[in-house]
Amino acid sequence: MSNLTATEFTTIADIIQKRSGLMLTMDKIYLLETRLTPFARRRGMADYKLLLRDVLANPNDVILTEIIEAMMTNETYFFRDKAPFSNIDEDFLSKFRKQNATEKKLRIWCAACSTGQEPYSLAMMFNEKVVEWQGWSIEILATDISELPLARARAGVYTQFEVQRGLPINLLMKYFTQVDENWKIIPKIASAVKFQKFNLLDSMSGLGCFDLILCRNVLIYFNQAGKIKVLESLERQLNRNGALVLGASEAVFGLLPTLQPSPDLRGFYIRSEPSIASTIAA
Fold first, then answer.
1. pLDDT higher than threshold 90 for residue 106
2. What would be the CATH architecture of the domain defined by 83-281?
């Protein structure tokens, strides 16, 4: 089977980008092969090129959705990178708890949550300080564009390898039960997170506003226009005193003037209005 032509690649890459934000260049064509070949074979096709040529000739929304889901990067693990969780716990939330002591409400959104380790890490973090958060209404929303990882997240079952990545042994013993060779998160933590399918390119207004939004290691896959679109939308969903947390390697400086990096916390972004920025940075 001949390779995809430049026109074929450009057409499918454009479809994927418009529907998901994922930017593909010719040097990443191997991603099409590695991620779509298994999907193509499940549909009785020899390789991914036949699959793509078939969908280009006969557009099908269901198959296109499955292709896009197969193309997504689902890399995640518990307490990933450690520092952001420490900063959330020791800096942002400690200040937020004082500032919002009257309302006692906190909404958190984990965007592109994949198989759920990030929101479950937050849920465990809150439970470790249950006395400090007593009387608070805490909502953790976790979303992803792909249904398959969301199904795994809702099930809350992880392999030995997955729980060994970033999860302290004391938390494993406290918040998981062993099921054969796997580990299942306990109902108390599972019920603390609401999972929902959501595309970051869609309107976010229906999700409501949040005090903390985590959208880490996502924008690196978007082109500049896509990054700006998502950042503008995320900023609109931030409550006063709220913060957006991005990945440490995601450079967004200058893309959105009203969203500025926190002077104290790496990867944290806040609105540039003095009344808000000064409150968080104080």
1. yes
2. 3-Layer(aba) Sandwich (3.40)
